[in-house]
Amino acid sequence: MYTPAITGTGVFTPENVITNAELVTAFNAFTDKQNAKNADAIAAGEVEPMQHSSEEFILKASGIQNRYVMNKSGVLDPDVMHPQLRQRADDEPGIMTEMAVDACKKALEQAGRSAEDVDLVICAASNHERAYPAIAIEIQQALGIKGFGFDMNVACSSATFGIQAAADMIRSGSVRSALVVNPEICSGHLEWRDRDCHFIFGDVATATLIERIEDATGPHFEILSTRCATSFSNNIRNNNGFLRRSRPDGVIDRRDMQFMQNGRKVFKEVLPMVSKHISDHMASEGVASGDLKRLWLHQANKTMNDFIGKKVLGREPEAGEQPNILQDYANTSSAGSIIAFSKYSDDLAEGDVGLICSFGAGYSVGSVIVKRHG
Ligand code: CO8
Fold first, then answer.
1. In angstroms, what is the span from residue 297 Cα to ligand 1's centroid?
2. Which residues contact 315 (CB under 8 A, 6 or more apart)?
3. Is 156 known to be catalytic?
4. Predicted confidence (pLDDT) per residue in 90-108, tens digit
5. How far, rounded to the nearest angstrom, does the alpha carbon of residue 327 sit from its chain's CA centroid?
6. Tag placement on the chain: N or C end, fewer CB within 10 Å?
7. For 285-295, b where at least 16 C-beta lie within 10 A, e where not — what string?
8. Given this structure, which CATH class describes domain 222-373?
9. Global pTM?
10. Active site residue: 156, 186, 228, 357, which one?
11. Residue 331 to residue 335: CA distance in whole angstroms
């Protein structure tokens, strides 16, 4: 058996930022247009008027201030309200591949490695640009990696589940080195015209290089243990699949193919599940809360993270102990905890222990306990 270690991480951040102010202005303009269009039906009491969104609500309910997106103009155009992404020719790299390649190169550079050193690419994300060939195989080809690649999807937990899969293969010796990459174009599956969720998501790609610990050339994080759990729930759902299903009246319901959630229920049900999962995982590995130097949590909601941090540590987390990036990136699904890890882990000292945790649709929760070396 070999010991796996995280030797490099990389983050691709899109160029375009949307602030809450810009988002709310676009949403409210759309709302006014819709209400004007439906004025007669609204006056007759047949249609409910749409309500404005508010910056204050978004910040208070979620902690989000900005989000990065792959296309800004479409999202902010009240007559469009979705990203307008150019369809790629079959012989061009896909959009997810371009994002992933950038993140992977940064992870390889940080580890002092090149593509020839890698045996496996796992593209772990909550949405994939196409069904097949696997995005991972396209990334593998774009980077010039031998070995193999495959796609996997566990929604927001894709990265930690991918890390477990890669770490287990490294432990057993079937691969020597793996890239787990999470290109998330959440803007493509978000209903930007829905006031309840239009502020939630952003786009990004993260990559994590995992190698045998003896192959590490610089500072690295030994993977002490991983744990994954799932429990079926309809409270976060996206019905977009390969079947073109229509309603009884023959209409294809576009909303049915986008992100849907019952946010309040998610909040209530996922918090205890995650807190218990982390505490049980730590207990079975003999890690006390006092031993934990950092928590890199899934980035969906600030209140949620504050709650989990307090529950796991048994006290209010101190500044920097549980870094949030959601104020800048919003919820980037599987990439969130890896962005936090990538940006806030360099300062840990030899022997410091930390925990990466993701949670979300499924429900799913994945945790990775790591120890700093070097
Ligand atoms: N502006 C102003 N008011 C608003 C707005 C708005 N934009 N939206 C709602 N309100 C109003 C509501 O109408 C409601 O009014 P009233 O009290 O009169 O009924 C009031 O504000 C409160 O609304 P909510 O109860 O909905 O508000 P919450 O406080 O619950 O906050 C949140 C909403 C932020 C969504 C919160 O519930 C939350 O964060 N929940 C957990 C979410 C979560 O973690 N989800 C995980 C999903 S991600 C995942 O697993 C990956 C899926 C793949 C993603 C990729 C595709 C995109």
1. 19
2. none
3. yes
4. 999 999 999 999 999 999 9
5. 14
6. N
7. eebeeeebbbb
8. alpha beta
9. 0.96
10. 156
11. 9
